[in-house]
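Whether sequence alone determines local backbone shape is best considered at the level of individual chains. For completeness, the protein is quoted in full, as a sequence line and a line of structure tokens:
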Amino acid sequence: MYAIIEDGSISRYINYPKAITIGDIQYPAKIFSVWTASELAAIGIIEVTFDDSNKKNEKWYINTDQTYTYNASAKTVTAAYGTATAKAHADTLWTQADSDNGDLPSDKSVGDLKIRGLKYNLIQTIKQQAAVILQDTDWYIIRKADAGTAVPSSITTHRAAVRTKAAEMETAITNAADTPALETLYTYTKQEDGSFTRPLGEFPILES
């Protein structure tokens, strides 16, 4: 990506090398491959440097838009993010301020749900994962209800373990004090035996 500098400031951007007109002169696309960075800068073409140092994982944070800054003395253009905002852990509700500002939808009232919180969404994912795992052995339960065939103890034990683990995971998410703590729950680290584990743990696997 390149920034075009005119009259001492960024006037436009181009995403890829192409023929371009600057002032009254039209330049062919090949200047991007045969000219040096200094030669391009002399006519006001500067490749954008992307600074992602402030960008954070969008699973946990809301990143700002990028701000493009032209440094005339250094002949550089940098695209950088501002300070990211941690996603709200709790549900967000429509407020009186939303209503006063005209942002409240016609089908909503003050106090209604606006946006689900991060913890709610994470816990819903845990519930869905547990449901999918249990679904694999649901037929044992259905068979018992239909035909009276006993459910093997290994299946009963496994299903109980899945539910227990889901409850433990949900509690860990609920009790996380802040966003870094939530991130830590999901972060895998390498163990001495070469395996990778995370504090949140994993669902039990049914032994065949």
Summary: The CA atoms of residues 190 and 196 lie 4 Å apart.
